[in-house]
Each structure stands twice: as structure tokens, then as C-alpha cells.
């Protein structure tokens, strides 16, 4: 085996009440990460364009392997393997960078999984750690809330970031309507808006909503998940970064959404709904357009995580 | 039917990270509440002694039906039923009042369930509401975290106290070692010690521990439950009310406990463990005695909730 291709999906971190802990894997969009053994030591990176460009991205992905999340993740595994080989990575971005949908995490997981496959590393915890180190290059801090659902699929709860202690569960069949506005948010800036303290009653509410979401995931109760998909910590602090947030939220509920929240640190927003998914998506886009913000929407469902789709 | 007897068990509220939301029903000890139709309108109450007195209780249970939790709960249902009858209640306390083991909630649930049975009220939400009103007479505020597990059994999560929105799940087979020291704590005073704000990182940790506990309950993972049975909100604020807390905690862990926490607002403390339950209980008692506090211990398992055990 000299070459592998990995498909690594978008993810919703901070899912509802689970700031810094919950993550949901989506079925699409995905990044494609191709890794090939090379005689030249170290990591090199190139990018491929895809026919359908990902939704408007204001970001450029660095191809310097020390600054690219896929490169850093792959490099970490290369170092661990002790093998005297090189890797060439070709990145095809299907997830819009800076969208709040775990774009940098997907590339990191893709790079890690592809490298692991080529280098014969099977331990998922090692792959998770390498992915997290890769993702940290982009976000500035090691967080597992995007890399975990991207690697494991389904719904994940990070119990301990340092210990790589993650619980995985399989969500019920459901549809998520995701709307991406053309707004630029830096994760580091969004992070600074989170208050250092919260009222105890809000902390209590978050624990009970988080419990409701886990119960809903385990028992297949989408209505319970939607009802508990609330956030009184990150959303109130961050919604000011998303022009038109309140209007878009109202439009989503008016169109039949059961919930509305921010994906990761935004700007993407999403709703759960049992029907009228396209109508909800269009309503969100129109509400953004009314306040002068371009937007797109797509409908996804929970996904199964990153996987090797080709070996040569 | 003229008379019913209900057995209503002890409960652990504030279970680990679930302050004001999680509750676990125990298999024992229980209060016995006997209710009998009477020609005399309104509610009257008497108390029976039991052969084995409950563990040292510093509290007297009022027999004034407007101040007794069973009386208030039963009275609420009598009012709702619109029936022109009276009820006589005989209360046999098996749960030590003021222990932190949901003594007043058990009497309230017992009174409500016995009255509901006699009056032909079957709706559990109405019985829950009446129980909560009864319990509020003792604690000063309407909280569902003891009455819910006592009425429904198993492990309960209160999503919304006002909406009586409660999730119930069945815990795995496990043993809980409970130690009751002869210390007096007033719930209202213990409540005042809870800080108004908490660090956001602690709120995040609580949400992830709460998620781990729910996942553990649903998947039968006792080790995960024990690992997530942590509390950085109530326990640090309240442990000063329990003389010897740190020493008893250490003794429990030294004897093999997997976790250690305060039941409700205390003074009872408890541990989960997979073996050596008696050794852990004795170690707790000895550690309390070393600091001059009398104590007892008992071992319980999750229970199935209040039930009618006799009808005449």
C-alpha cells in the first residue's frame, strides 16, 4: 500500500448545552485527504480544487505542513512510527474553512487517519491525539469537540480533554438544517467572548439539558433532543457576531424548526426539525438576506465519521 | 376500599454533578404511610413507632396536617378530587428526618400516593405535583429532585421543575454505601451556601459528568457512573457543614470506594463501590468517630419507587 484516500466529515461542536464537550458528526460535507508515501523525508502538501466549490470561504488554507492541520497531524504520526519515510498529502476541501463546521478538525482527522493507515498505526487513541494536535494549530488550543465526532462518528461527549476520555453514541435518525452565512468569525475571538463565570442556575440548567440530550440520543427521542438543545452560555455571548441572528432564529421557528443554535463558534447556524427541512433552510437564508448577509443552506443527517475510501 | 398502605423509599438528591436535577431512588429504608377514609372532613395525622427506630434523628415530625408533608400532599389531592370525605393518615417513619435522604419527600409521596389510591386519582403528574407541594412545606421551596425518584423509582433527571418535566431511567445493578453521621443540617441553610455564580469551566465539567452519568445509567456502566460522580458546585460549598468530611472521604477511598459524595444537602454521605461494601461502610463510621461524630452505615441498591403494599 502506497496511497490512501480518507473522507473526513463536517461536525457540529458545542452541540446545544454541551459547550466544549458535545460534538455531532454530519454525513456531509466532507474533506478528502489523500496521503502517499514519498522518498523525500517529512511532509509536503498540495491542494486540489473541487468542481463544486465549498460554500463561500474567506480563509486560505496554508500549505506549509507546519501550519496545515492535516500536515501537523500526519507529521505527529510519522514521528511516532519512527519510520524513515516521507508523506505527500493532497487536500481537497469540501468543508468551508471558517464556517464553524469543523473544517480544520476534518482535515486534521483526515491527515491523521490517512497517515495511520499508511504507517500501520491502528490505535484510535493515538490517531485522536494526533488529530487534536493538528487541529490545535488552527484553533490555538487543544479541543476534542470537533475531532472526536469526526473520527468516531455519531454523537460524542468529551469527559476529559487531557485524558482523551470520550464517550461515543449513535444518534437516532434525524435531519439537521444548516445555514452558512458569509460572515467571518475567528475562533479565538469567539472564545474570548465566553464569560469566565456563569450563574449557578444556568449551570444547573445546562447539566439537565445535557442529560436530556444524552438520554434522547440513547433512546432515539428526537423531540427530547430538540427540546434540550438550548444554550445559555455560548449563544448569548456569541450571537452578536452573527448579524441577523435573532431574525434568522425567528424565521427558522416560524418555518417549523424545533431548535436553533450556533455550530461550533459560528457563523453557521442549524436547526433540528421533523419535517419542512427545505422550507426552514430557505427561511433562514431569506432572513439573512433581509439583513444584507449572503447565505446558503444544506440538509444533513448524523454521519459515521472519517473513513478510508481508497487504498492503492 | 377504605384503607391503603404505601411504602415510600429514601432517595439521594443532587446525585453527583446533578445539583437540583438528579435523583436516585434507594431500595431501603422506607416510610410507611397508611391512609384511611374518614367521616370527619379534612386530614388528621398520627404517628406510629417502629421497633427498630430509624437512625438517630434530631427532628420531630409535626402532626399538624398543614405542616406535615404527607398531610399537605394528601390534602392537595383531596381538594382536587372534590370529594366530601376525610382522610386519616398514620405515618411510620423508617427514614431518619434531617438525614439528607429525602425523608420529607418520602412522606409526601407516601401521603399523595395513598390518597390518590383511595380517591381514584391515577394521573402520575397530579400525584407528582401534590407530592412536590407537600415536600415544599418542609424544604421551603418546590424541588422535584427527591419526590421524582421516590415516586417513579430508578434514576430521575428533572428537566424543568415548573413544568414537572422529568425523565426516568433504570440504573444498572449497583451497591451504594450510605453513612449517616449524627450532625444536624438545615436544608435552607445548606441551600444558602451554594454560590450564585460558578466558573464556566466548572459548569462545562458538570455538563460532561452529567452526560457521563446518564450514559452510564443507560448502558449499565457502573464504573463510568462512579467516575463521573463528581461535584464542584455543592460539595465544596457544603462539606464544611459535615465535620470530618475530608477524613471520611479519604477513608472511603482507602477502603476501595469508587466515589464519594453528599446525599441531598447532607449530612448523609455515600460511596459507590463494586466490592468491599461493608468494609467501606465501617471505614466511614470509624473516620467519623475519630473526629468525635457518631455515625451508622447501611448498604442499599437502586429501588423501584413508592408502591401500594396493602389495600383493604
What's the arrangement of secondary structure elements?
Two copies of one chain form a homodimer.
Chain A lengths: L2 E11 L8 E17 L3 E7 L20 H13 L4 E7 L10 H17 L4 H16 L7 H6 L2 E6 L4 E5 L5 E7 L5 H6 L4 E3 H20 L2 H7 L5 H5 L6 H10 L6 E2 L6 E5 L3 H14 L4 E6 L6 E5 L1
Parallel strand pairs in A: 3-4
Antiparallel strand pairs in A: 1-2, 1-12, 2-4, 2-5, 5-6, 7-10, 7-11, 9-10
Helix pairs in contact in A: 1-2, 1-3, 2-3, 6-7, 9-10
Write a compact overview of the structure shown:
Two copies of one chain form a homodimer. By secondary structure, the first copy, chain A, is an alpha+beta fold. In chain A, 37% of the residues lie in helices and 26% in strands.
Overview features:
homodimer, 312 residues, alpha+beta, Ribosomal Protein S5, domain 2, Alpha-Beta Plaits, 2 domains, 7-stranded mixed sheet, 4-stranded antiparallel sheet, 10 helices, globular
User: What's the count of strands of chain A?
Assistant: 12
Percent of residues of chain A in beta strands?
25-35%
How many helices of chain A in DSSP terms?
A: 10
Listing every helix as H and every strand as E from the N terminus to the C terminus, the arrangement of chain A reads EEEHEHHHEEEHEHHHHEEHEE
Shape category of chain A: globular
What is Rg of chain A? 19 Å
Task: Work out the largest interface and the residue count of each chain.
Answer: A-B, 38 and 38 residues
Secondary structure category of chain A: alpha+beta
Q: What is the averaged pLDDT score of chain A?
A: 92
Count of structural domains of chain A? 2
Oligomer: homodimer
